UniProtKB/TrEMBL annotation:
It comes from the Eukaryota. Coiled coil: none annotated. This is L antigen family member 3. The lineage of its organism: Eukaryota, Metazoa, Chordata, Craniata, Vertebrata. Pfam families: Pcc1. The keyword Nucleus applies. Its main location: cytoplasm. It is found in: Cytoplasm; Nucleus. The keyword Isomerase does not apply. Keywords: Cytoplasm, Nucleus, tRNA processing. Belongs to the CTAG/PCC1 family. GO terms for cellular component: cytoplasm; EKC/KEOPS complex; nucleus.
Length: 97
């Protein structure tokens, strides 16, 4: 997993953070995306999160007004990501439909 240092965007003044999570296959990355994408941020206007899959890599990018909000969102996402990864590991790779 690769992550950027949380940095403030000089144009917008917002804090930005991104992480890339490699998966064994594109199918597993897509399953993770579909499992994690429905979780909208509870606070409108303070933070945004974008998820995308490129090949077998899940990419996530946050933009927030406050460090506290960013920290809570990233922490929650990583907890959910760990649960998704553990579930896929326990039940094996997803079956094509």
């Amino acid at each position: 997993m690769a992550a950027t240092d949380g940095e403030r965007n000089p144009e917008t003044g917002r804090l930005e953070f991104s992480v890339e999570v490699p998966f064994p296959s594109a199918r597993e990355a897509t399953v993770a995306l579909r499992s994690l994408a429905p979780d909208a941020e509870p606070r409108k206007g303070g933070i945004s999160k974008q998820l995308a899959v490129t090949g077998s890599t899940l990419s996530v990018r946050w933009s927030a007004e406050e460090a506290r909000i960013l920290r809570v969102s990233v922490s929650s996402f990583l907890d959910h990501l760990a649960l998704v990864a553990e579930t896929m590991e326990m039940f094996g790779p997803p079956v094509s439909q």
